[in-house]
Fold Carnitine operon protein CaiE.
Amino acid sequence: MPCYQFEGLIPVVDPSAYVHPTAVLIGDVIIGPGVYVGPNAVLRGDFGRLILEAGANLQDGCIMHGYCDQDTRVEANGHIGHGAVLHGCVIGRDALVGMNSVVMDGAVIGPESMVAAMSFVKVGFRGEPRQLLAGVPARVKRSLSEQDLQWKRLNTLEYQALAGRSAASMEPVAPLSRMEADRPRLKGVTEVQPSAK
């Protein structure tokens, strides 16, 4: 992966995390255990510190950046969808930020909350636990149900498993010229885990 020191600060990546080789890490970046960072994500820690806590995921095309003397943080099991931009904000424990959303400086997304896809969370927003936010600008739409949270947790488990699956099996190859006749299909972690009895 492209990894750069900046003014003496070198990114820190826990050995159990998976960071795709095309992701870019610059400066004051801290990536915790079991984290998944997708292709073409950019974590530019040249102003403030960027932190991905244990079990979080930052999917493809996401951008994390901050401002001086601020931490931009995704707390444990945070789930950041494709193309989202996080700037100087805090995403609470077990929260989700939907695809192509923007969360601005000083905003705090409450634990177990969700920001709907393509939403814009304004500077300084202060959220509560278990809120659904949506819109431009984002507003609280309702409280989240246990069913909503279970869906989110299953998706986060998929990405936590993907960190290990990617580390174990992803490698550059030349493409095939045509599909094999008996080409298998991928299974998600929820499909391959034995049921508890």
About this structure: The helical segments are 146-169, 189-192. Residues 146-169 form the longest helix (24 residues). The chain is about 15% helix and 30% strand. The longest strand covers residues 42-52.
